[in-house]
Amino acid sequence: MLKQRLHAGDLLVGTFIKTPHPHVVEVLALSPLDLLVLDAEHAPFDRRDLDACILAARAGGKTVLVRPQSASHEQILNALDCGADGVILPHIRSAAEAEDAVKACTYTSGGRGFAGSSRAAGYTSKGMAKHRADAAGVTIIVQIEDIEGVENVEAIAAVKGIDALFIGRADLTISYGAATPDDAVVVAAVNRIVAAGEAAGRTTGMFLGRVGDVAVWRDKGARLFILGSDHDFLLQGAANLAEAIRT
After folding, report:
1. Half-sphere exposure at residue 188, Cβ-oriented, CA atoms within 13 angstroms
2. Distance CA 161, CA 28 (A)
3. Would you say 50 and 79 are in contact if contact means Cβ atoms under 8 Å apart?
4. Among 78, 179, 95, 184, which Cα is nearest to 144's?
């Protein structure tokens, strides 16, 4: 289970899925990646797409997370009822927002709405007690990608129920008005987030554009790395094929 692996400090590697089609998920479920992330924030996934892609991941025995359009309760409910193993929640800026996100993932008063007929509930076959017990294993990852989130990261990391912090380095670049993700102000923010996660006993993850950077951040304590996407694999594969024939 992903939640247990995060808390154990395992090194985890995944990729983003940008194409809203279950065949892409079905194919990548055959890969040795630890997890797949359906990027509903930046790619055109609707509810039916998420449903089909989550089904494909489950059929292939692959852990699947959803990054929804926002951390709203309805977006989280949709992903979890469809059977996602967890969520990566964008633009968490304060402890209050993190607490609300945890509530939205949890069967508690004012939190996740209960349905016993969803895929996650085994289409009525689990019963309330079993489904609620299973739901406690949902992975909750909050994404820090704004100046406000960095300034509040220690308080966010301390929120009970969070399994990991995820760093959105590209949005941090925009938020700080920097030129590239390698600018000193962005790197300093990433270091602060990783340190806050370490201090709070939370796993820290991030998207990286360069595989070579994994070793750098792994040595600093990060353990969850999302690299590339299905689009990248298509483009790189095509480029490698063309180069191999023309050389």
Report:
1. 7
2. 29
3. yes
4. 95
Structure tokens at 199: 């201090």
Mean pLDDT of the chain: 96
Write out pLDDT tens, residues 85-115: 999 999 999 999 999 999 999 999 999 999 9
Q: Is the pLDDT of residue 56 over 90?
A: yes
Long-range contacts of 1-6 (CB under 8 A, 24+ apart): 1/85, 1/137, 2/34, 2/35, 2/63, 2/65, 2/85, 2/86, 2/139, 3/86, 3/137, 3/138, 3/139, 3/163, 5/34, 6/139, 6/163, 6/164, 6/203, 6/223, 6/224
Is there a contact between 162 and 137 (Cβ–Cβ < 8 Å)? no
Read off the pLDDT of each residue in 42-54 and give the average, rounded to a whole number. 97
Q: Are 59 and 83 in contact (CB under 8 A)?
A: no
Indicate the pLDDT class of residue 169, thresholds 50, 70 and 90: very high
Sequence-distant (≥ 6) Cβ neighbours of residue 66 within 8 angstroms: 37, 38, 40, 50, 54, 79, 82, 84, 86, 87, 88
Pair type for strands 12-17 and 224-229? parallel
Q: Write out the E strands in the chain.
A: 12-17, 35-39, 63-67, 86-89, 139-144, 164-167, 203-208, 224-229
pLDDT at 247: 80
Catalytic residues: 42
Q: Which of 203, 183, 189 is CA-nearest to residue 153?
A: 189
pLDDT digits (tens, 9 = 90+) for 215-244: 999 999 999 999 999 999 999 999 999 999
